[in-house]
Write a structure and sequence with these properties.
The chain is an all-beta fold. It has no helices and 10 strands. The chain is globular, with a radius of gyration of 13 Å.
Length: about 110
Amino acid sequence: QVQFEESGGGLVQPGGSLRLSCVASGIEVSLRSVSWYRQDPGKQRELVASIFLGGRTYYADSVKGRFTISRDNAKNTVYLQMNSLKPEDTAVYYCHEITASWGQGTQVTVSS
């Protein structure tokens, strides 16, 4: 069974940074395309960033230039570095791959 465990969320002031981690089990992240999604209560889940085979990346317009997705194959982990955070980035962040079940996510709150 493919699962991800997300961590690294927290409370940060506007303009601050966080790095989210996503440890995979049941797959090798080096052989799959993995994405970060986010969901705020009452809103649809939103695709934030993806990393594809070969290392190509995709970012939603709302985070382009501020967020960076990467992976460490040795640790079987995908990261999301989030800089210049804004209050509208507040959400639960999930790591996902097409064959995986959704995990618990990690809460990110951007507030002064």
